[in-house]
């Protein structure tokens, strides 16, 4: 009987080691940090064990190996003897009693070791790694102190063997952008950072992937002066524009020759001087629309004029970008004195979203939780709709894509102003063809 109790105890001990190992290895560091800040006991110890994972894993390995040896050498042999004796007492021949007795003991102990010693504790550990890590960490720390000399020997031997294979490759330690994004989402759900901070970090990371076309003010919205404009037209523009820098074109609208500050033109008008736009011209950097926003920001930083003129591959003037556009891509739209900004996306009670046609498509992908095709040629929600529908749509037309139905609800001229996005699983029987 005592042998049976010892065997079960060893199996359970194996389970404790398996549980502790998986819980501490798979616990998320930001969540443990948050628990430590909330005063949860064991959280700091678990973090310390994670920091020194080599020593912790060696301790667990020593524990599991010792338990296995003890279970086999002591209780296995003793239980095998006991069971063989029982079969002999019942008149079984010795040649059959011994293999049967030992075979049964090996089978039962193997079964219990796998189920109670490994599978159940590991499943348990995966369900709540941080909570279990906090609970087992103090015991594991005591054990790792007791086992320190043996652990040192194991670590030194492991390092020696790894040393024979040369230095570790960099790829193992490189953190990918995707991992950073996941970490930031986890940090937010663990309460380590605020939602607003998470949004800004995602916005900064997006700047490196987003072409400047996705955040520029398009040419249709730009207030600019043509050198051929009469004084009256320029006066009206200066009175009406809320912007302090205006691009200046000469000849064609694609030939932007620089920018002027509206303040300087107003000053010369107020002092009674003749309106000479060319005299106030400043050179602004010209950038291609495919340049990444991060690189555009570097161009603006090095430029004396904080406006970049965006041109496409054919040399057409496409729009302008200023540091304010980059900041807006990170923190969202600003309220100006003249008008409250309309949000790019508004969620409606039925789960659909009303989206601005000019909304950057990667921001849309984030709020709708969809993955955009790698080789896409569009940058805005309106561009997505046109690319899917394959023509300039009219109000009321729709197309199904990315698991959503996109319906054009408002046009501004030929420009798509508002799009209604409805999840397709909400509309039974939706089709994939434009109307
Ligand atoms: N001439 C312009 N026409 C249309 N949009 C412009 C013009 N100049 C700047 N913008 C846009 O206005 C937004 C704010 O830009 P920014 O703050 O750099 O200039 P601003 O509007 O002139 O304001 P400020 O007077 O503070 O410089 C950005 O989206 C920018 O692209």
UniProtKB/TrEMBL annotation:
GO terms for molecular function: DNA binding; flavin adenine dinucleotide binding. Residues 1-197 form the CNNM transmembrane domain. It is found in: Cell membrane. Its main location: membrane. It holds the Pfam family CBS. Belongs to the UPF0053 family. Hemolysin C subfamily. PANTHER family: HLYC_CORC FAMILY TRANSPORTER, UPF0053 PROTEIN YRKA. Residues 216-277, 280-338 form the CBS domain. Keywords: CBS domain, Cell membrane, DNA-binding, Membrane, Repeat, Transmembrane, Transmembrane helix. GO terms for cellular component: plasma membrane. The chain crosses the membrane at residues 6-25, 56-80, 100-120, 132-154. It is a multi-pass membrane protein. InterPro entries: CBS_dom, CBS_dom_sf, CNNM, FAD-bd_PCMH-like_sf, FAD-bd_PCMH_sub2, Ion_transp-like_CBS, Transptr-assoc_dom, UPF0053_domain. It comes from the Bacteria. The keyword Transmembrane helix applies. PROSITE patterns: CBS (PS51371), CNNM (PS51846). This is DNA-binding protein.
């Amino acid at each position: 009987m005592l042998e049976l109790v010892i065997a079960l105890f060893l199996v359970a001990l194996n389970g404790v080691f398996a549980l502790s190992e998986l819980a501490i290895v798979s616990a998320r560091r930001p969540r443990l940090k948050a628990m430590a800040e909330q005063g949860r006991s064991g959280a700091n110890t678990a973090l310390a064990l994670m920091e020194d994972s080599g020593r912790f894993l060696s301790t667990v390995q020593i524990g599991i190996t010792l338990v296995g040896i003890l279970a086999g050498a002591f209780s296995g042999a003793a239980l095998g003897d006991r069971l063989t004796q029982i079969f002999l007492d019942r008149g079984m021949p010795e040649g059959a009693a011994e293999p049967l007795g030992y075979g049964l003991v090996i089978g039962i102990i193997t079964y219990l070791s796998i189920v109670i010693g490994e599978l159940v504790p590991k499943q348990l550990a995966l369900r709540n790694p941080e909570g279990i890590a906090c609970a087992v960490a103090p015991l594991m720390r005591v054990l790792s102190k007791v086992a320190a000399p043996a652990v040192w020997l194991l670590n030194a031997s492991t390092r020696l063997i790894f040393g024979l294979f040369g230095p570790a490759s960099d790829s193992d330690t490189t953190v990918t952008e995707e991992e950073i994004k996941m970490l930031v989402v986890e940090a937010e759900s663990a309460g380590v950072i605020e939602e607003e901070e998470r949004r800004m970090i995602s916005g900064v990371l997006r700047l490196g992937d987003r072409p400047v076309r996705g955040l520029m003010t398009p040419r249709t919205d730009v207030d600019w002066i043509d050198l051929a404009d009469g004084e009256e037209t320029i006066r009206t523009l200066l009175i009406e524009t809320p912007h302090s820098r205006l691009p200046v074109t000469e000849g064609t609208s694609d030939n932007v020759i620089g920018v002027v500050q509206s303040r300087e033109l107003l000053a010369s008008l107020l002092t009674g001087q003749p309106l000479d736009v060319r005299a106030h011209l400043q050179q602004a950097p010209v950038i291609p629309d495919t340049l990444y926003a991060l690189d555009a920001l570097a161009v603006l930083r090095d430029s004396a004029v904080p406006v970049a003129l965006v041109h496409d591959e054919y040399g057409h003037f496409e729009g302008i970008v200023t540091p304010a556009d980059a900041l807006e891509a990170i923190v969202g739209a600003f309220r100006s004195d003249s008008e409250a900004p309309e949000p790019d996306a508004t969620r409606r009670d039925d789960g659909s979203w009303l989206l601005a046609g000019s909304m950057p498509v990667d921001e849309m992908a984030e709020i709708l939780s969809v993955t955009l095709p790698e080789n896409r040629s569009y940058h805005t929600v309106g561009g997505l709709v046109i690319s899917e529908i394959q023509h300039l749509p009219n109000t009321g037309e729709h197309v199904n894509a990315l698991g959503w139905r996109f319906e054009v609800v408002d046009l501004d001229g030929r420009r798509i102003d508002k799009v209604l996005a409805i999840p397709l699983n909400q509309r039974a029987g939706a089709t994939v063809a434009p109307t």
